[in-house]
């Protein structure tokens, strides 16, 4: 698996709506919040990750494919 990483910094005094809206926007692009760090009770740093290898063709194991065909009903 290959991952791309980034981070966002939020001001606590702006409230949770800004954080939620921003994370939802990033989530629509495939980003996932994987860790958070609180800095001086004033900022929240969110670390985000997303997979970058999902566009690649899956590697087919020929032996698994052969066994799968043996057990399928031919549909």
Total DSSP helices: 2
CATH topology: Dodecin subunit-like
What separation lies between the terminal Cα atoms? Answer: 32 Å
Beta strand %: 25-35%
Largest sheet geometry: 3 strands, antiparallel
**Number of β-strand runs:** 3
CATH structural architecture: 2-Layer Sandwich
- The domain count comes to 1
Overall mean pLDDT score?
A: 89
- The SSE order reads EHEEH
- Which oligomeric form is depicted? single chain
Q: What's the Cα radius of gyration?
A: 20 Å
Assign a percent range to the helix content.
Answer: 25-40%
**Strand order in the sheet with the most strands:** 1-3-2
Global shape: elongated
The CATH class turns out to be Alpha Beta
| Class of secondary structure makeup | alpha+beta
The unreliable regions are: none
Please explain how this structure is put together.
This protein has 2 helices and 3 strands, in the order βαββα. It has one domain (3-71): Dodecin subunit-like (2-Layer Sandwich). It is an alpha+beta fold.
What are the defining features of this structure?
single chain, 75 residues, alpha+beta, Dodecin subunit-like, three-stranded antiparallel β-sheet, 2 helices, 3 strands, 31% helix, elongated
List the helices and strands and how they pair.
Elements: E1 3-11, H1 16-28, E2 32-39, E3 43-51, H2 62-71
How would you summarize this macromolecular structure in one to three sentences?
The chain is of the alpha+beta class. Helix content is 31%, strand content 35%. It is built from 2 helices and 3 strands.
């Amino acid at each position: 698996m290959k991952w791309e990483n980034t981070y966002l910094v939020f001001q606590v005094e702006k409230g949770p709506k800004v954080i939620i809206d921003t994370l939802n926007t990033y989530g629509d692009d495939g980003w996932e919040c994987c860790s958070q760090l609180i800095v001086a009770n004033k900022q929240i740093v969110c670390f985000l990750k997303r997979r970058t290898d999902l566009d690649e063709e899956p590697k087919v194991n020929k032996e698994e494919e052969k066994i799968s065909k043996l057990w399928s009903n031919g549909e």
